[in-house]
Amino acid sequence: MAEPKLEVTVLRATDLKNVEKKGKSDPYAVLELAGTEFKTKVIKNNLNPQWDETFKFTLPAPLSANSPALNITVKDKERTRDRLLGKCTVRLDVLMGDRTQTKFYSLSQGEGRIQLRLKYDGPVDSSAPAAPQAGTATCLMRRCRIRVEASIGNIGNVLENPDTEGSITAPAKPTFDGSCYYYISWENRKPCLELKSDWEDIDYRYKTLNFLRTLAASLEDICHQIAVFQSQRDIEEDALLDLTDDAILALETFQKLCQQPLPALPDGKFTRLDYHLFRLRNASIRTFNAMAGTMIKKIKELGAMKILDICGEDVPDLRGQVMDMCYEPQLSIPDVILWILTDDQRRAYLRVPVSDIMFDENPAHRGKQFGQVQTAFMKLPAANRSKANQTGDIPAQIQFRAWFGDAEYTALWPKSPATLAVLSEVYENQRYMLTKWADPGIGRYTDVTRKKKQPKDQVLLPTGWEWTSEWEIAPEIVEFDPEAAVDAVTEEVWENQRLIPFKGWRNPTSHPSFSALNPREKADKDSWELDEGWAWEGDWEVDTARPCDHEGWAYAVSFASKTFFPAKKRIHCVRRRRWTRTRRRIARVQNRDGDTGEADADADADEEDEADPLMEGDPEGWLYAFSFGSQFHKKRRRRDLVRSRRFHRERQPIPGFDFAEVAPLTPEEQEQTYSVGLFYRYPKLELYQVRAHIYQARKLIAEDASGLSDPYVYLICGHHSTRSTTVKQSTCPLFDQVGTHEIQHVMNYAHFPEPKDPALAAITRNTVIAISEGDRASVFNKKDEDAKSILQEAKKQDPDFTEDEIDWWTKFYASMQQSEAIKRYRGNVFTIYKWELERVFDLEDVVSSFSLVRGKTGQQRESGMFKGKIHVITDVDEVPPGSTFDREAQTDVTRVLVRVYIVRGEDFQPQDANGGCDSYIQIHLGNKRVVNDVSNYIPDALSPVFGKTFEVEAVIPLQTELRVSVWDQDTLDKDDLVGATTIDLEDRWLSKCRPRCGLPQTYTREGFNAWRDAHTPREILSELCEEHDLPEPLYSDDPNNVWVKTALPERGIETFTCQYLEPDNDMEIKLENAALSALHSMDWTPEHIETRRLYNDCQPGVEQGRLKMWIDMFPLDGPPIPPPIDISPRKPKEYELRVVVYNTYDVVLDEKSITGERMSDIYVSGLLRGMESKKAKTDTHYRSLNGEGNFNWRLKFKFLYYPAEEKLVFHKKRSLLSRDKEEIKVPPILALQVWDNDLFSADDFLAAIDLNLLEMPAPFKLPKKCKMYTQEYHDKHERINLFKAKRVAGVYPCTRGGGEKGEELTGKLEVEIELLTAEEAEQKDNGFGRKEPNQFPKLKKPNRPPTSFFWLTSPWKTFRYIIWKNYKWYFLLALLISGLITFLCLMFYNVPRFSVGAIFGSKA
């Protein structure tokens, strides 16, 4: 047999790590394979060396899956000790298919890649395939012959029915993957197990069950989408429209399925239960169909905005009702069980329900797993289950496909891409006699039992079949090296002694003096033999680092004792101590000329002994044993007397042959075919590469008594596994390792759609949300050179513009598009994101975060977080450098300054009984609280304006989680958590979109738009070019045409110009803005404010409010850090409003006097809307008979005002029990009202006018011309901004709205209104009303008519002007009548007397 040889050509390396402080590394490569080592030449000062050197290796055995790996180490040549640049391991079994391959291999523990050309010449061990993936069983069972059995009921059970054929695979031994697992693989030739059995015809039951499951599955996706949307707030309208379309489509699909009839009951072959279930299910499906139709109708009527209200509960409830029907109590066909057998013992099993793999022509009645590739974890049988429950071990993982159905319809099953094949097998046997191998008495060629003869030339080829190969050696045992993953092993030997009376401690006679851990198993340390490739390191030493005395002895009563004590007691009769010695792998260093040098002094001593040819392994596939009934092994031992090897020959059906005309083989003929199983041969597999950057883990659960753990990571893909280094005593370990696996494509034999992008098949991540037009504020076209230019531009547009109206908050509101004051602002604006920044940008482009869980399914709990990056590379041969891990996460500790800007809160959940929230900010870095702003809490505000800046120092990657929480301050009780949000600082620090400090629209030096980053745009652009080995940017020197020409990553050379040029611009500023234009083209994070949602663990998934905020990050060891931007809340400005009420005209007369006259007791009141408690009023003009009132009265109002927001502010308690006053902002509106004064009842409202101080209507000059305002009047006269005009005077129409007549003019008010600042009011002091100091202006007492008085305090005027004026003629007539009556009375009184006197002549 030809000697196996490997030719390795080291072509080149790219992007190597630079470990030199000056210059570049001096790389060379070291190749090691099976103890043989080569070195390339050293290439000076080069990170992309070209070697093109070829080396030849001789393999110890034919190429197989267990062949030793080729280890490549790239080092930097130094005078003293060479430094490591990277390592990689190349599996040679990939050459079993394509003998010549040229590939790039990534270097772990460093950076870059190396390109190798591999060429193999020699035999191949075909029983140990190259790099299998599909049809593998991965298990933890070592050194066992494993078979896989399929059974259904008792059919296929080979332990009870040994004559059963086709239900079990041929024995195979697991292969060690070099790390932690053992696997069995059949490469692209997969065994097929076939079971034929007879069962009751109950297909209609399985079809009905699968149909109901299909109904439920049609609503599964839409239910999941609804659940996701219900946990969110502020859902975009486009997303709701998409959800509506998906819901309608899902419900229509559900309706179409409901319209299909249920499988019919067979005539006379069903039970009464079948009949009643059939009727119930038909009625239910009709109901489900109607429910789905109703929901579709509602969705189309109400639209997308009501989709969650319609489907939020109804669709999941509909699916739940269907799931309740997915039960069939009369299934009599048992489940299919897959067993793993070792040495005729059942080790693990998997139960596969028949309904899942049942075939039917109607896809709706077919099992969901029919013909699908399944990967499942197997379970332990009941006898071993308790142990598994304690350790949590999974005995095996299996990948398989399964079909089940009526034998008559197998022709309708989907065709497999594989080709059917059958293997014939014979064993060649020999016995060692004296000096040579000879044929044994049992015969040279036998079956696997070595008892039945099977000559190769007597094999029977059945009719319709043809041979596709000759007899080939197929080794039965694939040896594995349990120490393949280690380079050093510590061996131990125990020394035993017994206490003999009067003689002391002596070697025991019942036990060996030196033994293994088991005291009866002899192990002599002086005669220990090492395998080839190993050498001792040091001598045997006593282990004293354990419970023992100073000499290493531990004592016990007997050697059978389970516990040995470090101190001797009287009862102790035996003692033992542990000796240890370390052995390491060695390599023969071979130079370019082929000479061999010695690598170790101990290796020299071992090589002096002549090797025994009987102890060498046989390259021809022979297996050795003491006898044919013993266990065979691959390497011959001294006592082995027999050997055996296996031969396989493959046959396939002749294409187009009709087997229906051929009689089946008899049992004797079947035995003569030497068949060992049915196989499916699949097409050639595609090669993929899995690259995993194992970076960091966080918040791991402590497993040691110290409160820490010693964590490490297993990377497992298919049957390959890799283990990372162990980080001692840490719950947040930093690994920073890159693991690489090459796997074969499994989709070729899977009957399900292949992913569109195989590079994303290994990991499922949340899709990065694209920013729609509504997600950010519009960008102004006008750019500003600095803050002064903003003011100048604003003053050009408005000469009365003041600097108080523009500040950082103006920029914020301009970005939000919320204030009228922003109309004059033309500066930089923020990009306002409605979501967290990580939902807008992929901040996990360097490393991603994965949650770690532990526990059973349904009972899983989070146990930490893993950070890393995983890629599946499709084109393994040609992967350009940097295509996957463009930027490795750094391992150095970096101290950074984190600035947290908290702008404002929105829609906090009330925490107090009064419906308010006294909110303040806390910040935690990891588990440490670094900010507690409780002293500055904002009372009774559900949308508070914080305007806070906090600075925190963090160490990355040790402190990476920043937790911002909002708390409610309570006086008597414990503070309540409103909600919190967590920010991953490490993701932002490492991300390629540079979110650590957003890029503004322009570069400025002053004001609130000043450049915030520690590096200028030109410095950032230069660093970017240097990082990607690009030429330095080239800048123009023409101040009228400023540009920069630069090459950007993954793009060619481009020219970027400064878009705005002004004569007074500084040239440096223009150049910086040109560089900033180039940076903007990189799609980096702009200057932004993100909206972070707050959550509370007491209400999981329910949003508790939002924070508008952003963070900046700066390295503390970098350039000077600019000062923070001042975003403190605006402070209101104090104003005084003076209103002088002169007269009223034509006020409606609402009352009648006792004399019947129309009149009103008029007074005027004034107030600022929102500040009703500070209402002021004039004196009363009594008895206005013509609607005219004279006052000359001054009203004064002091208030606080935000000029930038154009809002009046006041403070007010929310309720009587409130502790603090709440700040309220309202428009500055002056209300002037005319009232009628009543003494014994409520005053009557006569007229009013509301004047917005920002846009007051122009008053009328004369009362006669005053009338109700119309749109025509407003078009002719500009509105007045009192904050700019300062003073206005004239006549305002006052109206009163009422009933059917609508608003009507009910009076006219002559006033003078003046607005002063607090400083101006202090300089121009005056009194209220007409009090002293009566100035600015001086008000005289009004000249009211004499009829204006209060009747109760002026009785004479009341008589004169009311009674006498209106009733004087009545008084005169009454007086005349009274005089006449008096005269008549006196006359009649005196007439008798005078009559008598006249008669009698007497005198009166």
TrEMBL record:
CDD domains: C2, C2E_Ferlin, C2F_Ferlin. Residues 587-614 are annotated as: Disordered. Keywords: Membrane, Repeat, Transmembrane, Transmembrane helix. Residues 1-105, 670-810, 879-998, 1117-1267 form the C2 domain. It is a single-pass membrane protein. The keyword Glycosyltransferase does not apply. This is C2 domain-containing protein. It comes from Salpingoeca rosetta (strain ATCC 50818 / BSB-021).
